Amino acid sequence: MSRSAVLRLPGGLNTGSVMNTLNSRADATLGALFLEFAKIGLCGFGSLLAWAHRVIVDERHWMSEAEFADTLSLCLFLPGPENANISIYVGSKFRGPVGATVALLGLTAAPLAVGLVLGILYLQYPHLPVIQNILGGIAAAAAGMLIATGIKMLMPHRRRPTALFFAMLAFAGIIVAKLPLLAVLAGLVPLSIAVAGVMSRRAE
Amino acid sequence: MSSLSAPVALAAQLALLSLISFGGIPTILPDIHNLVVVTKGWVTDREFADFFAIARAMPGLPMILMTSLIGWKVAGLAGALACAVATSGPSCTAAFVVFRLGHRFRDAPWQRIVLRGLVPVTVGIVIASGYVLARAADSHWQATAITAAAAGLMLGTRINPLWILVIAGAIGGLGLI
Hints:
The complex is a heterodimer. By secondary structure, chain A is mostly helical. Chain A has helices at 2-7, 30-43, 48-59, 65-76, 82-124, 129-154, 161-175, 181-203. Chain A folds into 2 domains: 2-157, no CATH class; 160-204. Chain B has 2 domains: 2-104; 109-173, no CATH class. Chain B has 7 helices and no strands. Chain B has helices spanning 2-19, 25-39, 45-57, 62-104, 109-137, 141-156, 161-173. In chain B, helix 1 runs antiparallel to helix 2 (25-39), helix 1 crosses helix 4 and helix 6 runs antiparallel to helix 7.
């Protein structure tokens, strides 16, 4: 299945540009933006990103695999939750500032209402073991979904040894060396960009 | 006076933190804790920990739910809404401006090179985040098996992930983990 996701890339890795327009403009109405992002927000237990990827790339084709990875990379260098920033990107790509606002509201409003109500209820009965157990099961599955999303995002780059190498270094920096995110970014990103620059010059 | 000044001060502080929240909730959590628990005493340590657990467990954006629960404690529904807007507004406006600028330079060759360098690091971080979540959630081999099964189903099938969550929640609710 991941094979078809890779084949669908328009131009594969060459679509490095941000805000690259696809042909799905007609179906990206304000209503659709609101509903799809509400779905991402409401389903996204544990990991919104896995759902955002599923809906935006796999179901709606509002972004290619490469564009999704590009946008998420940019979001790591912006303040705020990356998923909120992705909703702003998609909304503004198709419908400008209004679309960005509508997509962000879809992502945040409904889950916030549900979360506030359930959260305040939960505070009244904090130690029901059944609820703890259900949440434990969901958390375990959500972790697996996020790992799978990372692997899918890596697929378009699987033939670039330097890309695999830097992905591994970033993983090791956080898991093995236990470095903070900002340190990993500051240490690896300049190096990774420099290597990408040298490789593309050599390819020409 | 104090009934009005507390939520306003909280929202103003959150709006400032929002602009520097690179990397999301973990980076500004110590600052929020310092303000609402240590300095102002609006929320107890226990409540703060409960809010965090709830925010992680609920759907949606954890950072916004977390600050909304604090706002709820300080000033009810109005406090919750003010904190939600203060937490998301400034950072989201910044993101919108950056995306517009990125759009303007979308055909510049340097942008392609920058992204080719950036993306592998991002992907490594995404997989590492999943691994961290898995280690926190997988206290037994049964939970590890659920994590592995969920990853396998996501990669190998087109199943709606909602089913994965429902089944995993049911297995947990039946006490099988």
